[in-house]
Amino acid sequence: MDGLAETTQTYWDKYSNLALENIIVFAPKIILALFLLWIGSAIAGRFYKILLKRTTDSKKIDTTIGSVTASLVKYAILIATILAAVSVLGVEIAKIFTVLAAMTLAVGLALQGTMSNVAAGILLMVFRPYKVGDYVEVNGVEGIVDDINIFTTVLRTLDNVKLTLANGDAWRSTIKNFTSQEFRRVDVDFGIDYDDDMDKAIKIIKDTAAKHEHVLRTPDAPWAKVSNLGESSVDIQMRVWCKPEHYWDVMFDLTKSVKEAFDKGGISIPYPHAVEIMGK
Q1: pTM for this structure?
Q2: What is the CATH number of domain 130-177?
């Protein structure tokens, strides 16, 4: 037992001394590496905020391009920081690149969905079917584009709900951009009674629409015609043009204004009637 205890003490002294020496040697390197990571992440975040603010405020730089550029600069600084921290620990950068090259194929196969999102993100940035600030319908959902990055597109709905879409899903879907054009048409249907004067109703609709401050006369003046003969009403469709940002105001305002004008002009808006026949 004495021999075993002596042997154990000998190994303990030997390896504890080695461990202590290694700690003394590597502790400064580890501290320096952690310090570099902290400084690098802080610089990356700072650069991201500065670039994003300047590109957003600049009228010469597209907001989408600015957001993507800021993200790329941030990730580039973080990668450079990680490589610097690893090199401080004594690992050769060339070996790191060799390992990364060997892992690329395996990672690519494992993250096919993620890589497709990256590819789709690049295509969205090149062809730009929408940009930050546009009101769009993407993959069946509508909202204002808040952010576009390498992996996702972020939408904000009209009721202030945040939606995050994978770029791959966005690119493969039908994209409707409601604000990309200079003008947008507003269509509103009104139903009048069969006994009412259709021409008078059409004139009321046109005159009311022409008075609205946001209704334009280009590309066309306010338009209204009979569109359908319904079961209980003669349907008249109104078409007017406005700026995309005024679409909702024009639609809601004219719906109310035309109804009020109909009331003053003696035009009635009928409602379906149910006739009950009682048998004997």
Answers
A1: 0.63
A2: 2.30.30.60
